[in-house]
């Protein structure tokens, strides 16, 4: 938001000779803000391609894309939350809880006050499970927006609640064979749909692409997108301008729950099982993808494009470390170091921008003072 304002202001007041340098400066900042993730991705690909001939094979690229898609979908929901200046630590647990709900629905639902067991169709199971994820997000958003509770505390608590409910529903048992359904009950076709590969790409990749397009349109072409950037940049100013701040806060957590629910279904189809630990650490990978993609944790800055690239950075890095045989312990160390580096670069860049803006403001003030003095002398 502030970049747009800075870019439009000189065009109406300054001469043409002053517009071009500022335009180039702003464009360069935008390139550096989002381009660093793409540069990191290219470097990672070059390094691991040189270290292993198996890295850029069609099979490995398909595997990377599938794994990246799960992280990217979660990261898209996390982007919406972070743009608002919040955080959602519960999405990983919501992934597991969504899969547990779906698994239990495949087992059948005992109707109250009867001996009848109902077996819903596949699409009913999917819709109900994803709706549960959205419900958890709505509860998070309600507590944060209406009661003014800290997002970190609310979503941390929900992380434990959702994970605990997952363990209660599964009762220490994985759900596997029931997911295939029974033809006589009309609830088959789950794996044929959600584990399929249309045009050679995993279904998760197609879902990622569709959601990326939708979220990009929402952020750039709708009033909600403008409201979201406004509330993330300055919540008080947005409220005074008539933005429905509380509604925006609630909605972004619902969207995060939606993405988590979708990933729960896709990941359950991917591993052919519903397990209690499904989705563990997904929230951390999502936050990392958003930050690496150039978003500010303070809110108000970030793009869908950068987030997707950030997810690919993490995916290609993790896969490359496995391909070259790096110890799992060192994989965590390296991944953590990359995240810290990304945040550090972001903060350094913001400091440089603030100092540059301050110097420009001082220079403008001195110039205005000289012009006033000249007019007074005349």
Automatic annotation (TrEMBL):
Give the UniProt subcellular location, in the record's own words.
Cell membrane
Query: Which keywords does the record carry?
Result: Cell inner membrane, Cell membrane, Membrane, Transmembrane, Transmembrane helix, Transport
Q: List, as start-end ranges, the regions of compositional bias called Polar residues.
A: 1-16
Where are the residues of the annotated region Disordered? 1-21
Instruction: Name a Pfam family for this protein.
Output: BPD_transp_2
Q: Which domain of life is it from?
A: Bacteria
| Membrane topology (UniProt) | Multi-pass membrane protein
Task: Report whether DNA-binding shows up as a keyword of the record.
Answer: no
Give the matching InterPro entries. Answer: ABC_transp_permease
Question: Which residue windows are transmembrane per the record?
Answer: 37-56, 116-136, 143-162, 199-219, 252-269, 281-300, 307-327, 333-352
Q: Which CDD domains match?
A: TM_PBP1_transp_AraH_like
Name-wise, this protein is ABC transporter permease
Please name the source species: Microlunatus ginsengisoli
Which taxonomic lineage is given here?
Answer: Bacteria, Bacillati, Actinomycetota, Actinomycetes, Propionibacteriales
């Amino acid at each position: 938001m502030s970049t747009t304002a800075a870019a439009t202001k000189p065009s109406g007041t300054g001469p043409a000779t002053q517009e071009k340098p500022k335009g180039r400066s702003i464009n360069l900042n935008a390139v550096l803000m989002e381009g660093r993730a793409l540069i990191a991705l290219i470097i990672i690909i070059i390094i691991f391609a040189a270290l292993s001939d198996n890295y850029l094979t069609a099979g490995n690229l398909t595997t990377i894309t599938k794994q990246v898609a799960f992280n990217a979908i979660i990261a898209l929901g996390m982007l919406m939350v972070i743009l608002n200046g919040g955080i959602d630590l519960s999405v990983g647990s919501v992934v597991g809880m969504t899969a547990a709900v779906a698994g239990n629905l495949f087992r059948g639902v005992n109707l109250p006050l009867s001996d009848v067991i109902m077996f819903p169709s596949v699409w009913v199971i999917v819709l109900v499970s994803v709706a549960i994820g959205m419900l958890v997000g709505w509860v998070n958003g309600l507590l944060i927006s209406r009661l003014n509770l800290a997002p970190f505390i609310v979503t941390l608590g929900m992380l434990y609640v959702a994970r605990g409910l997952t363990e209660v529903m599964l009762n220490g048992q994985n759900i596997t064979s029931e997911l295939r359904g029974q033809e006589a009950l009309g609830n088959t076709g789950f794996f044929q749909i959600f584990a399929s590969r249309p045009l050679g790409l995993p279904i998760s990749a197609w879902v990622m692409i569709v959601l990326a397009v939708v979220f990009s349109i929402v952020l750039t072409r709708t009033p909600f997108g403008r409201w979201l950037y406004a509330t993330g940049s300055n919540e008080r100013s947005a409220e005074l301008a008539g933005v429905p701040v509380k509604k925006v806060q609630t909605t972004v957590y619902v969207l995060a729950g939606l993405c988590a629910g979708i990933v729960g279904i896709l990941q359950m189809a991917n591993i052919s099982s519903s397990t209690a630990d499904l989705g563990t650490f997904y929230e951390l990978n999502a936050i990392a993808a958003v930050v690496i993609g150039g978003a500010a944790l303070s809110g108000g800055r970030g793009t869908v494009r950068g987030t997707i690239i950030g997810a690919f950075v993490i995916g290609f890095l993790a896969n490359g470390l496995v391909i070259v045989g790096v110890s799992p312990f060192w994989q965590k160390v390296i991944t953590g170091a990359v995240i810290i580096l990304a945040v550090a670069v972001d903060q350094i860049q913001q400091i440089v921008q603030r100092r540059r803006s301050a110097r420009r403001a001082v220079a403008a003030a001195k110039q205005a003072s000289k012009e006033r003095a000249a007019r007074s002398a005349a």
